[in-house]
Amino acid sequence: MAKSIMVQGTMSNAGKSLFTAGLCRVFKQAGYKVAPFKSQNMALNSYITKEGLEMGRAQVVQAEAAGQEPSVLMNPILLKPTNDQGSQVIVNGEVLGNMNAADYFKYKTRLIPNIMESYQTLDQKNDVIVIEGAGSPAEINLQEDDIVNMGMAKMAKAPVLLVADIDRGGVFASIYGTVMLLSEDEREMIKGIVINKFRGDVEILKPGLRMIEEKVNIPVIGVVPYLNIDIEDEDSLSERIAVDKIVQAVDIAVIRLPRMSNFTDFNVFELIPGVSLRYVKSMAELKNPDMIILPGTKNTMADLLWLRQSGLEAKIKKQAADGETIVFGVCGGYQMLGETLEDPFSVEEGGSLTGMGLLDMKTIFSKQKTRTQVEGRFSQLDGVLSGLSSIRFRGYEIHMGVTETGDTEPLTHIDIESGLQVQKTEGARKRNVMGSYVHGIFDEEGVAVAIAECLLNKKGLDSTSLKQLSYKQYKEQQYDRLADEIRKNVDMAAIMNILEAGV
Predict the structure, then answer these.
(1) Which one of the listed residues 331, 399, 413, 454 is annotated catalytic?
(2) Rounded distance, CA 427 to CA 410, Å?
(3) Which domain of life is it from (predicted)?
């Protein structure tokens, strides 16, 4: 039987996911077999496991930090918002269906057996389980029948660490308010408080720490500084999306669609000196990039309409027509590039919609979701990205549509699908416009660098200094740095005592 500890937060984006990943790495380095767990996650960024099952990317990051293969056991329920009031509900990696918020609120307790079956399986296979909560445990309208915060802590009999974000201000009020809105038995489950994202002199903070400890009768066991550590973010609150970037020698613009998903597909470009990766949502922000990326989306048709209404579609088509700008669509962004999108089963909006018309193809949305890991190589390309020819990649497909191509060439050749050898083509290209269903297509060593080299060469700039990089190795270094910071700024002896004592 594993020992468990739970990380909850005073609010969304307090740093729960990062702190959970850090604890996973610390326990791994200490020789424990450790697994992350989050009973219910809401995110548009998802991942496909080797078994072809879907889970949230935060638990994938935490599994990597723990040195484990990602498994849907670590995230049995995933909610992917389809609009402001509804989500696609994914249970044990497979689509259960779409529900509005009210219906899901009534239904969710029926999923407790699924949650506990996953948790108990991990319990039997690991020494430690680090559980992550969601949002805040003090949402008083949601506390009844809770399955992800204190409700999960009770089911797992897990002591709780409360993480509070000081960067936004009001940290003591958020700690006090969170604790006081809990029931007495729930307060007793919180065994330690961690102040996160601190900037400044901790000596000035110490009187406040003593006062909050007296008021809530819970020790503050750590003050974690604002960390400059590059670990994949999960949602649209990510700072890497919000921060304005200076245009560099190679300028890549990702269209920030309202329902953008899997934006982590492009993080690897940020590791290449001389490359700017910008997320843009207006014509003024777009400027004249070397490459425009249309990312994945949870609602292709709705986001295509937004693209059209914002004027960005017309500007992208104009830049594509000049033959100089690369336009690359991934998953939903790939679907947008075609002539038509048809939705006979109302998977998204229903009906049909004219696409951007940059590739001769049409997409028909189906009830069945494609979920598979793939490996392959790029086709023999001509034009600007000819240097990408035959380079190998790996990634995963996750989409509801089937795309039929006409007068286009395939972008890639797939030779491994779900661990089995196959021979098939995928994606489409025509001159400087191309697209693929494969998430993670840029991550494999050599792919992103080859694209940067091609774009530099097109401009007559020197590309000889660009280095091949291993994104996997880079992430491992970041997890180690995170663990170092956790050990340096948090009382790990206190955490070990909390873990051993339980509740």
Answers:
(1) 331
(2) 5
(3) Bacteria
Domain of 113 in residue numbering reads as 3-231+476-501
Q: For residue 377, what are the β-bridge partners?
A: 392, 413
Residue 439 is a catalytic residue: yes
Any catalytic annotation for residue 399?
no
Q: Indicate the length of the chain as a whole number.
A: 503
Catalytic, out of 24, 399, 439, 454: 439
Helix (H, G, I), strand (E, B) or coil at 146: coil
Same domain, 483 and 455: no
d(CA 255, CA 300): 13
Tokens linked to 304: 């295509």
Which residue type, as a one-letter code, is found at position 499? L
Is residue 240 in some structural domain?
Answer: no
Q: Is 121 exposed, middle or buried (0-12, 13-18, 19+ CB in 10 A)?
A: middle
Question: For the chain, what is the total number of helices (H) and then of strands (E)?
Answer: 16, 27
pTM given for the model: 0.87
Pairwise CA distance, residues 334 & 363, whole Å: 10
- Check if the beta carbon of residue 23 is closer than 8 Å to that of residue 130: yes
Segment holding 182, helix H or strand E: none
Same domain, yes or no, for 116 and 261? no
Could you tell me the two tokens for 267? 């993080």
pLDDT band, residue 94 (cuts 50/70/90): very high
* Whole-number Å distance between alpha carbons of 415 and 412: 10
CA atoms within 13 A on the CB side of 189: 24
Closest CA to 164 of 298, 15, 24: 15
| Token pair 């498994």 in the structure block, residue | 71
**Digit-coded pLDDT (tens) for 417-474:** 999 999 999 999 999 999 999 999 999 999 999 999 999 999 888 877 676 668 888 9
Per-residue H/E/C for 226-278: CCCCCCCCCCCCCHHHHCCCCCCCEEEEEECCCCEECHHHHHHHHHCCCEEEE
Note whether 150 and 37 are same-domain residues. yes
If residue 326 lies in a helix (H) or strand (E), which one and from where to where? strand 326-330
User: Which conformational region is residue 309 in: left (phi greater than 0), alpha (psi within -120 to 50 degrees), or beta?
Assistant: alpha
Distance CA 450, CA 123 (A): 44
AA letter at 221: I
Q: Are both 295 and 420 inside the same structural domain?
A: yes
Residue 265 binned pLDDT confidence (cut-offs 50, 70, 90): very high
Helix (H) or strand (E) holding 469: none
For residue 132, the model assigns a pLDDT of 98
Q: Residue 5 and residue 11: Cα distance in Å, rounded?
A: 19
